[in-house]
Specification:
With about 950 residues, this protein is α+β, with helices and mostly antiparallel strands. It folds into six domains: about 90 residues, no CATH class; about 130 residues, no CATH class; about 200 residues, no CATH class; about 80 residues, no CATH class; about 160 residues, Jelly Rolls (Sandwich); about 70 residues, no CATH class. It has 33 helices and 22 strands. A five-stranded antiparallel β-sheet has the order 8-7-10-3-15, with no helix packed on it. It has a three-stranded antiparallel β-sheet with strand order 9-4-14, with no helix packed on it. Helix 26 packs parallel to helix 29 and helix 28 packs across helix 29.
Length: about 950
């Protein structure tokens, strides 16, 4: 048959609407040979040459498939169906030159092309050449006051002081170039520079200090990552190192503070507390939560550093860019073992290295000791196991007397015939109380040699509620009750089991219930037994002692077993030190009775080495913690997130992005097409060492041949200096993003930044702000009609200050700005703690609280309930990756500036400041004007302001100045 004459017209008429160039339902196309013959999603291939009966396509068009008919509305005619059947049976011959559409080379795009070699030039050469091309003329230079105000806000986020303005005006009038260069260097050397530019970076990685989602619990150890970014920028860390540390600093730069705290980038985004803590990884919802978690890690990494939308390939190959589904899931595989958790670090690199070395020595010594003891333990057999169990749990004194009183044992449920019988016991605290922790003390029974841990539940959960029947308002503190968990809770012996509340602030409730969903075995039946249930408040007091106990059932066989025993304060105890030493000595005899003296000497030597190491570790200062990416064992405050002892999870390509339909497994890697184009490794070694995976990705991103990395950062810096990037879609360099207005300039700057500047961001800033283009005035007559958006930069753009700069400026001119750097964030809200989730109440905060007078970069950032004043001023949403903020104008902004508690309070402090600095109303108005606007008032401005001050007071005058447009805009 003739495909072009007979078959292709059928496809064009009936199929291309849904399976052609414009739409590709189910990722299937019938205008391209390769996809038509091999594609077909879940039922690929749709066309089996020579076998029409086995070809899904024919079943769809002839109605044989009851669930699907193609085309959906009217189907094919009988004649057309016969033509397709005969064509397939004859081998489905499709000439190579007969496609109605050709697959385009998706790497043929400006962003994916290699960077050119370096060459001479300047920013102004490229900009001015484009102005000539477009028929535009450059604007004149801005005046000295405008330039220092522009530079100060751009580089530090704060206005210049009046004294700095005067000094610059005077020095620039003598030697402008020298004075301007000195000003740039001074601002870049200021610690305020890192604080300013860290805010741009934190927007980009959607940094927040709560988890987000419905509970939105506080994330109290996120701030060390924020401080890392500030520190890295202030020290001008080379950009490649800056990137490496945030992806794999613990591997590529071990033993450093920055190598750990920088990993906060991977964990910076929202996190589903319920999906991770309360749903196991084996459940569908748990798989979805973890899939979305890894997706956020991929987005934060590839989107931030490479300006790529790799996440668009979750369900199908990227429709526009050369990113396949396999590429996307290979990127997920890079992060397959890490979770978000609290990671220890120390204050200095020296202490970090000491701790690392001690840990390495301890691991090696323990391994040597284990290897030495292994044959002894094997020879000791059962006797060794019995003695070990005795040392770790049971005590001959478990029922020791106190005076003449024989302690009773605890609570004992009724006996059950099956292990999965549900049992519960609960304590009434008498009132709703703040709970800091809960402890379960195991029982001990010497009857029939039952021993320690008798009746301790194998799987159980601990809940708190104000509802006696636990039907509503229930908070889960801890669980190991789901049948999908691979391991039961081990017999604890006499070791107490303690769990803390769901967050650092504890939880609240009147009733505490322990529910066993898998009971402890006896001989031929099953029970629940506990010696004591203790509930501690924030002061360490056991508020459960003596409180009434209820349960589903009870054996009630006093004095040994009864409900009241659960809170009587009496429980079996672990062995004393003397008992433990005696038992250890007995074990030594068993272990060494068949060995030589050399082995014993070596064992003693290893034990002394371990003791020495432990003493050295104790001397180290207590570690701090950062919320970051790390392998997690799934215990403690973030239980339920760990996986398989740190080995990476198997990652599969998901058909249509559905966790219920996994396809082939993939290893770690990156974007194959770009790797082949630039001679980079596209697939990484499939190793169980998860750190090696992240290190490979970090090297891929920072490779000098990867053009995306260097174009991306140069464009981001340019954007914040001009209000618009050379590419106006800073987060998307793909085909759905914008094209550069000055592609040659972007490439030249990327190469210069990478090669000549050594990745120094401070050098890049200076390079940009020293240009004639940056120093131009804000308006050029006539340019609007040719270049309305000023894309070609004939003049500088007037910009509205962002929310942080407005707030910090208000504090600064009022004399109340606290420049203390680093550490935990200040909270400009009061937290109210209902049972389900915290409420962040901003209206209850006192703006006169000095703790909140720090720079806005140190503000505690809540995802679900954002600060109203900052939100009105277009502050970034911390749940989204924001590459460029909105610049809106609304009545709400005017009302906020006039009436918000911050501006009202600071207007009062502003007036108090100028009253202290100068005398007389006229001088005070002048001083207030200069502080607020960096310039003295004009003649027609001063008299009305003085008159207003006489009539309404100096405080209201200061409030007016804070509300002037000139205060909130920079030219």
């Amino acid at each position: 048959m003739d495909f072009v004459i007979e078959v292709r017209p059928i496809f064009e008429k009936h199929c291309h609407e849904c399976h052609g160039a414009q739409r590709q339902k189910n990722d299937y196309r019938l205008d391209i040979k390769k996809i038509a013959l091999t594609g077909g999603s879940d039922h690929a291939p749709n066309i089996v040459p020579g076998k029409s009966a086995e070809s899904p396509l024919l079943r769809f068009v002839n109605g044989a498939d009851g669930k699907m008919r193609m085309p959906p509305k009217k189907g094919l005619g009988r004649t057309e169906t016969e033509i397709l059947k005969r064509w397939i049976d004859e081998g489905a011959v499709w000439p190579d030159n007969a496609d109605t559409a050709k697959l385009e080379d998706r790497t043929d795009w400006w962003a994916f092309k290699p960077l050119p070699g370096s060459g001479p030039g300047s920013i102004d050469d490229f900009i001015n050449a484009k102005l000539v091309e477009k028929g535009l003329k450059p604007a004149p230079h801005a005046d000295a006051r405008t330039l220092i105000r522009r530079l100060s806000f751009d580089l530090t986020g704060l206005p210049p002081t009046p004294e700095e303005v005067v000094a610059f005006e005077q020095s620039s009038s003598l030697n402008f170039q020298s004075a301007y260069a000195f000003l740039v260097d001074r601002l870049l050397a200021s610690p305020r520079y890192g604080e300013r530019w860290a805010r741009h970076w934190l927007d980009l990685v959607h940094y927040g200090e709560t988890h987000g989602y419905d509970k939105d619990k506080p994330r109290n150890n996120a701030w060390p990552y924020r401080d890392y970014v500030i520190r890295a920028l202030n020290t001008d860390k080379p950009y490649a190192r800056f990137v490496e540390e945030q992806i794999a600093g613990d591997v590529l730069h071990p033993g450093t503070v920055d190598g750990v705290t920088a990993l906060g980038l991977i964990a910076a985004g929202p996190w589903d507390l319920i999906g991770h803590m309360e749903v196991p990884e084996s459940k569908t919802d748990g798989k979805i939560a973890r899939h979305l978690d890894r997706d956020d890690m991929v987005q934060n990494t590839l989107g931030t550093f490479c300006s790529l939308t790799a996440q668009c390939a979750q369900c199908h190959d990227h429709k526009f860019d050369p990113i396949t589904q396999e590429d996307y899931y290979s990127l997920q595989a890079v992060f397959a073992a890490v979770d978000r958790t609290h990671v220890n670090y120390y204050a200095t690199d020296d202490i970090m290295r000491q701790a690392r070395d001690l840990e390495a020595r301890a691991t090696a010594t323990k391994a040597a000791l284990t290897a030495l003891e292994a044959p002894w333990i094997k020879r000791a057999g059962t006797r060794y196991s019995d003695l070990t169990l005795l040392i770790e749990g049971a005590s001959a004194n478990a029922t020791r007397k106190q005076g003449n009183i024989t302690p009773d044992f605890g609570y004992h449920s009724s006996i059950a015939k099956t292990q999965d019988t549900l049992k519960w016991v609960q304590v009434d605290l008498g009132r709703s109380a703040d709970i800091e922790s809960i402890t379960l003390l195991p029982g001990y029974d010497d009857f029939n040699k039952i021993g320690a841990g008798f009746g301790f539940p194998v799987r159980f959960k601990i809940e708190v509620s104000d509802d006696l029947e636990f039907k509503q308002g229930v908070t889960l503190l801890w669980c190991r009750h789901d049948q999908t968990f691979m391991h039961d809770f081990p017999n604890p012996g006499l070791q107490p089991f303690t769990t803390k509340g769901a967050d650092d602030d504890g939880i609240e409730g009147r009733y505490v219930r322990v529910t066993a969903t898998k009971l402890a075995p006896r001989s031929n039946d099953f029970i629940l037994a506990l010696a004591e249930l203790q509930v501690f408040d924030m002061y360490g007091k056991n508020i459960a002692q003596g409180r009434p106990v209820t349960s589903l059932d009870s054996i009630e066989a006093p004095p040994r077993w009864r409900r009241a025993n659960l809170t009587d304060g009496i429980a079996p105890v672990a062995p004393t030190a003397d008992e433990r030493d005696k038992l250890s000595a007995e074990r030594e005899i068993v272990l060494l009775e068949q060995t030589d003296t050399a082995g014993k000497a070596r064992r003693n030597e290893l034990k002394r080495e371990l003791e020495h190491i432990e003493k050295q570790k104790v001397k180290l200062p207590a570690p701090q913690q950062v919320y970051a990416a790390a392998v997690h064992d799934g215990t403690g405050a973030f239980r339920g997130t760990g996986y398989n002892g740190g080995r990476p999870r198997p990652i599969h390509v998901l058909k249509r992005g559905d966790v219920k339909t996994p396809d082939s497994e993939v290893g770690p890697g990156s974007i194959l097409a770009l790797s082949e184009l630039h001679e980079l490794p596209g697939r990484f070694e499939k190793t169980d060492d998860e750190g090696a995976r992240r290190a490979a990705l970090a090297r891929w991103i920072t490779d000098k041949h990867n053009p995306l990395t260097w174009r991306s950062i140069v464009n981001r810096v340019w954007q914040h200096h001009f209000g618009r990037g050379i590419v106006d879609t800073a987060n998307d360099f793909g085909r759905m993003g914008g094209k550069p207005t000055h592609p040659e300039l972007l490439d030249w700057m990327a190469v210069t930044f990478r090669d000549e500047m050594g990745g120094s961001l401070k050098k890049l800033h200076k390079f940009i702000v020293m240009s004639e283009t940056y120093r131009r005035a804000v308006l050029q007559a006539g340019s609007f009609y040719i270049d309305a958006n000023n894309a070609f930069l004939s003049h500088q753009n007037r910009r509205k200050l962002d929310a942080e700069s407005v707030r910090d400026s208000i504090l600064m001119v009022s004399g109340r700005l606290d420049l203390t750097m680093g550490g935990p964030s200040f909270q400009d809200f009061v937290i109210e703690k209902p049972e389900h989730s915290p409420h962040y109440q901003y209206h209850l905060h006192d703006p006169n609280d000095p703790r909140s007078w720090r720079r806005s970069i140190y503000r505690f950032i809540v995802r679900s309930q954002q600060q109203p004043f900052m939100t009105v001023m277009d502050c970034a949403d911390p749940s989204m990756r924001v590459d460029k903020r909105n610049e809106s104008l609304s009545p709400l902004q005017a009302l906020a500036m006039m009436n918000n508690g911050l501006t009202v309070a600071m207007a009062s402090h502003f007036a108090g400041r100028v009253t202290k600095e100068v005398s007389g109303l006229n001088a005070q108005v002048r001083r207030a004007f200069v502080l607020a606007l960096s310039r003295p008032p004009a003649g027609d401005e001063l008299l009305p302001m003085i008159e207003y001050a006489r009539r309404e007071g100096l405080e209201n005058t200061c409030r007016v100045l804070l509300n002037l447009n000139e205060f909130s805009f920079v030219d």
